[in-house]
Specification:
The complex is a heterodimer. Chain A is an alpha+beta fold. In chain A, the strands form 2 sheets. In chain A, strands 1-2-3-9-8-5 form a 6-stranded antiparallel β-sheet. Chain A has a 3-stranded antiparallel β-sheet with strand order 4-6-7. In chain A, strand 6 and strand 7 form a beta hairpin. Chain B is an alpha+beta fold. Helix content of chain B is 19%, strand content 32%. In chain B, the strands form 4 sheets. A 6-stranded mixed β-sheet of chain B has the order 10-11-12-9-3-13. In chain B, strands 14-17-16-15-18-19 form a 6-stranded antiparallel β-barrel. In chain B, a hairpin with an 8-residue loop joins strand 11 and strand 12. In chain B, helix 2 crosses helix 7. The longest helix of chain B has 11 residues. Classes of the chains: A alpha+beta, B alpha+beta.
Chain lengths: 119, 374
Amino acid sequence: MKFTEEHEWLRDEDGVIVVGITQHAAEQLGDIVFVELPEPGTEVSKDDEVVVIESVKAASDILAPLDGEITEVNEALTDEPGKVNEDPMGDAWFFKIKAAEPSQMDDYMDEPAYQEFVG
Amino acid sequence: MSDLETTPLTALHRALGAKMVPFAGYEMPVQFPAGVLKEHLHTRAAAGLFDVSHMGQVIVRSGESRESAAAAMEALLPVDVLDLPEGRQRYGVFTNETGGILDDLMLANRGDHLFLVVNAARRDHDIAYLRAGLPRCTVEEITDRALLALQGPGAEAVLAGLVPGVASMRFMDVGVFGSDHGELWISRSGYTGEDGYEISVGADKAETLARALLSHEDVAPVGLGARDSLRLEAGLCLYGHDIDTNTTPVEAGLAWAIQKVRRRGGIREGGFPGAERILDELENGPARRRVGLRPEGRAPMREGTELHAVEEGSDPVGKITSGAFGPTLQAPMSMGYVPADMAREGTRLYGDLRGRRRPVTVTPLPFVPAGFKR
């Protein structure tokens, strides 16, 4: 698993990258009440805003960590945004992306580096 | 947070694991470990305990009589202060010369004096304003007392366990009660839309009182986050957001707080700052009104969101002043100002959310029915 400085996690499932937010991010955001997901099939560039999440405190964006195509989104989060607080590292993934440049994954942190990053 | 003031309960908040934030010059709990959603729902289901010690507690006294203090006060706000019975409190607003709102407050008749509770961020302003406006009265800021709020359907049973006399209080009654925690100044009121009490307690007794209340299984500590979502569901204004010096009480939908005797044709008509505009708006209607708004879908529309009359083109017609997701409502909710002819229930408008206009519907306030004990 890889981690971004935006507190996303990326898991490689046979060449398709599953993206979610970390436990640390979920705790910082507080109770999440709204998730807006992109359409499957959307072509995205790295750092595009692809997901909007709203917590009881504020709105935030999740950025595309890689260039590629969104292949699947986790529709369950639209009806139950609270899942992001319950299981951010597991069931509450946001989207899957087929990377155009798989080597972009190499830029991201491994788990020990991320743990050090969040202190 | 070294420049921030603390309250007599700051140590308790930390011990309970609160997340502390700066608010109106104070270090205050925004949430406890349960989180905003659970704290909100717990308050509506049982009872929530809030620390509101940052608010200003002020005693206004005249050397002559309480009536003369009340009469002097009527020059500062469009409220019937003279006829307020002893042991009762009333909501009001200080207005300025253009009819704008300087602050909103609670005002109680406590026999030989008036007791006021004002907003934390406006406390220094209000005290200076009172001293300048009431030269024949003494204006005493109470600095040695904390203020707690116990809110929710379980509040009466819990507080009556410590102070039996509170059970028979009605909404907006005030009283002074002896207790194991010293003299308590209690009102049956709050800022959540629920039944409940606001309790002024000596600073040195505040933590033991708070712990005694929290020891009841129905009571959970609640932070500022849920305080905001609770008051918004109840359709209550937050000073500096929904009301300020640019909004009049009539525009803000607070005409109910201006009693008949202060209106045109009343025996003490006018005589407060901004009377000309406010009395005119009471008679002829204001140009714009504060309304409740329900956005379609689940995305909250927050403060600052521009409102449009049509889905494409044209300039904004209004703006959202408060917005959040309502945990009890299970939907997003907002309040904002719109032209009077767009304020009718059911009117469809569009809020500009991240560059896209999304429909909102004008909705009666409160969003969640109140549970006051009348």
